[in-house]
Amino acid sequence: MKGYYIKEKPGGGTVFELRELPKPQPKKGEMLVKVRAASLNRGEILASISLHRADEPRPAGGDCAGVVEAVGEGVTKFKPGDEIVGRARGCFSEYVAMLEVQAAPKPKNLSWEEAGAVPTASVTAYEAVSGLGRLKAGETLLVAGAPSGVGVAAVQLGKYLGAKVIGTSRSQAKLDKLKPFGLDVGIVTDGGGFADKALQATGGKGVNLSVNLVGGGVFPDLVRSAANQGRIAIVGYVDNKHHAEIDLEALHGSRLQVFGVSNARLPADQRAEAMAGFIRVMLPGIVEGRIKPVVDKAFPFDQLAAAKDYVETNAQLGKVVVRMS
Length: 325
Prior knowledge:
- The protein has helices at residues 42-45, 112-116, 119-131, 149-160, 172-178, 195-201, 219-224, 248-253, 268-281, 283-288, 304-311, and strands at 2-8, 14-20, 30-39, 58-59, 63-71, 83-87, 95-99, 103-105, 140-144, 164-169, 185-188, 207-212, 226-234, 257-260, 295-300, 319-323.
- The protein is of the alpha/beta class.
- It has 2 domains: 2-118 and 293-323, Medium-chain alcohol dehydrogenases, catalytic domain (Quinone Oxidoreductase, Chain A, domain 1); 122-260, Quinone Oxidoreductase, Chain A, domain 1, CATH 3.90.180.
- α3 crosses α4 (149-160) and α3 (119-131) packs across α9.
- It is globular, with a radius of gyration of 19 Å.
């Protein structure tokens, strides 16, 4: 079968390498999945983040939608022929071996491209907003970098849970496109400088939960705009600023909580717990059509390199996916 590996290239960055690979055989607890569509996740293709370095070439692609072709020992929730979405290493391939606990039924109302955009972005949004973020109805959610794949999912999940949703972006046009998906207040900003507008949008009360998809450049504003006992989730750093000044007095006086959301070092049991939480809390909203995956562009499988180049332009709203013929 054909499949891609990712590796670092001289001078920085990463590159995909197409290889002829043996077809996987499902082990205990695994399923063999015929891939129909897979998404590009920024964390997996940025070598600038130490957690995702590709010093040695490795199978590329972290999530997909597809059809179960065979099951290994102990698999009981799925059978051959079932359509699923899920997470596994090596999803930029014609076939991938996937743990049963990392899969969920594919919603019938989604196309393959839409389904391929679901797993990583939605599970990450679930953890940041609901699982670890503990967002409740009536609270305020701020998503810094709202047009990203995780951002769009977080905006919709926040509205689904009954929160007021604020989003930031450099682009007014992108914020306008997010209004139908649940964005209540859009703030145009080039990095930071939005704390006063966020406070104004909350009537001075502050933001209960912020999801930082931008990086160190916006962290001070998230602290300034936080409500008493507010929470701040750190998810990404597209601004390449991995460090930020911390106002200890603000954290201390307002009893703020700062936490990270990453799969890089997450044990297998906690990965399974995150998927189970997504299935319990967020998947019903997708099935009902109240949360809808947003696919900006879909590329053919043999144009994965072009898809990566497009992601790195930061032009997209939502997810970029590759589809199998």
